[in-house]
Amino acid sequence: MQLTTRVNEAYGALRDPVQRAKHLLELHGVDVGFETNTQMPTDFLMQQLEVREELDGARARKDFAFLDGLKDRLKNQKQALEAQIGESIDTRKDYGAAADLVRKLMFLHRIGEEIDAAYD
Asked: Distance between CA atoms of 105 and 109, rounded to whole angstroms?
């Protein structure tokens, strides 16, 4: 039973881009510290505030078409970040930059959860 649990945990980590990147960075000796290192570039944070304002407005209006567009835009941003993370880890071996990108991806993931909740 323990082995099955560990296999399921490993599969979950491989499926989730954030967990996969976190694991790869840890294998390369990078202390990810996502819980303690939340410093982000100001322009990125401003963009996230704007998205949250748009989300709040769409939620209040029950504008599901706008939510769909917001979700698509977020999906494209996440895919671009995932590609940048892969390049940072695999090609450039720049693990510090990859950790910064993973923190951004975590922000986008949280916003995605909020968008999904807005449909309810």
From this structure: 6
User: What sections of the chain are H helices per DSSP?
Assistant: 2-15, 17-27, 42-61, 64-86, 95-118
* Distances from the Cα of 39 to the Cα of 44, 56, 63, 107, 120, angstroms: 11, 24, 32, 12, 32
Helix/strand/coil for 91: helix
Place of tokens 């995605």: 112
Q: What's the confidence (pLDDT) of residue 34?
A: 65
List of domains in the chain: 2-118 (1.20.1280.20)
Report d(CA 69, CA 40) in Å as an integer.
Answer: 25
Looking at residue 39, its pLDDT comes to: 79
Predicted TM-score (pTM) of this structure: 0.86
Measured between alpha carbons, how far is 119 from 117 in angstroms, rounded to an integer?
A: 5
Is 35's pLDDT higher than 70?
A: no
Q: Cβ distance 101 to 84 under 8 Å?
A: yes
**Residue 37 pLDDT > 80:** no
